[in-house]
Design a protein that fits this description.
Blueprint: E1 5-9, H1 16-26, E2 30-32, E3 36-37, E4 52-53, H2 56-64, E5 68-74, E6 77-82, H3 83-91, E7 95-99, H4 102-111, E8 116-121, H5 125-135, H6 140-155, E9 162-165, H7 169-184, H8 187-197
Parallel strand pairs: 1-7, 1-8, 2-7, 3-4, 8-9
Antiparallel strand pairs: 3-6, 5-6
Helix pairs in contact: 1-7, 5-6
The chain binds adenosine-5'-diphosphate and guanosine-5'-monophosphate (5GP).
Enzyme class: transferase
Catalytic activity: GMP + ATP = GDP + ADP
Domain Guanylate kinase-like: 3-181
């Protein structure tokens, strides 16, 4: 694979989708890994854009066929990254943004050690709950379940490469963009092109 994988994890409601959408508009050459999920679409989510929404049977069939690079059960639903989707993008040179939970982050890092792992923290658990409610896409039991696991989820930030605190949205978007741009300037990445220009 030639493109770099950028994994972003966070408790639900911390702002992953908001930040990834904004970064995707600002930074060129980025792809987005569209996961498969058995969760029902919420709000104005579109099939094939936000997720590939599939039923349990289709998801199980894909597991059995080895179609996923990684998959996990998160909050009672299945989520997975399909190998073909990822390979199409990275082999065409795109750096790929991936929104996966902490199990997915661990699995991708094990499989692709060069991946860059970014953990997005909310400024507080109270603000996380406020954002989940304000988003207005989850019912009360779902919000309760997500808040119950949030404190434990957050503990996993210790083994991520980067932490972004999403207090001020613009600052958080800037930080995500900076991480991507700095990785693109890494010597290992620049050297092949630089060697074409100079006798290095
Ligand atoms: P996630 O993808 O992590 O579940 P979302 O991107 O859907 O989270 O964000 C959850 C809610 O919080 C949305 O309504 C979004 O507009 C809002 N939000 C995101 N970042 C901020 C921020 N920095 N300040 C205030 N609200 C935010
Ligand atoms: P949501 O239902 O809020 O869109 O996502 C719930 C959780 O599933 C989030 O933590 C999100 O990062 C995670 N998720 C989304 N797609 C994938 C995936 O393909 N693999 C894994 N492991 N987690 C995913």
């Amino acid at each position: 694979m030639s493109g770099q994988l950028f994994i972003i994890s966070a408790p639900s409601g911390a702002g992953k989708s908001t930040i990834l959408t904004a970064v995707g508009k600002r930074v060129s050459g980025l792809g987005y890994s569209i996961s498969h999920t058995t969760r029902k679409p919420r709000g104005d989510e579109r099939n094939g854009v936000d997720y590939h929404f599939v039923d349990d049977r289709t998801f199980t069939k894909m597991i059995n066929e080895g179609a996923f690079v990684e998959w996990a059960k998160v909050y009672d639903n299945f989520y997975g990254t399909s190998s073909s989707n990822l390979q199409d993008q990275t082999s065409s040179g795109l750096d790929v943004l991936m929104d996966v939970d902490i199990q997915g982050g661990q699995n991708i890092k094990d499989r692709f050690p060069d991946s860059v792992l970014i953990f997005l923290l909310p400024p507080s658990l109270e603000e996380l709950e406020r954002r989940l409610r304000e988003r207005g896409t989850d019912n009360e039991p779902v919000i309760r379940a997500r808040m119950e696991s949030a404190a434990d989820d957050i503990k996993n930030c210790v083994w991520y490469d980067y932490i972004i605190v999403n207090d001020k949205l613009e600052k958080a978007i800037d930080e995500a963009q900076s991480i991507i741009v700095s990785k693109r300037c890494a010597t290992a990445r620049q050297l092949p092109e630089s060697k074409k220009l100079f006798d290095i």
